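> run fold FCRL2 protein
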Amino acid sequence: LQLNHSGRYHCAGWVSNLWSQPWQTSPEVTVRVRRVPISGVSLWAQPPGGQVALGDRLVLSCAVAVGTGPLSFSWHRRGLVTPLGTGPHLDLHVGNKDNGHYQCR
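> ok
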């Protein structure tokens, strides 16, 4: 379902061998499609624990357990305002300045 599917619905029909009977219509039902708040955000690292040597590859991944989209992701390291990347994954080849705490928003 999408948000634009909200509205009033009914069905109608007739018995095909009884042409003298008019259409029969069901009562209407109101459908409201709502956004589901995002929850269950998780972050994990590969290799596990995020322990890597200088020059190694570190992949951070972010996932949302529940919530309606569209979803967007931004990656931040504590102390920096500018996002390091967007999308559910951040791929780093670890350098001298990559130590720190990372966060997915």
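The two ends are 25 Å apart (CA to CA).
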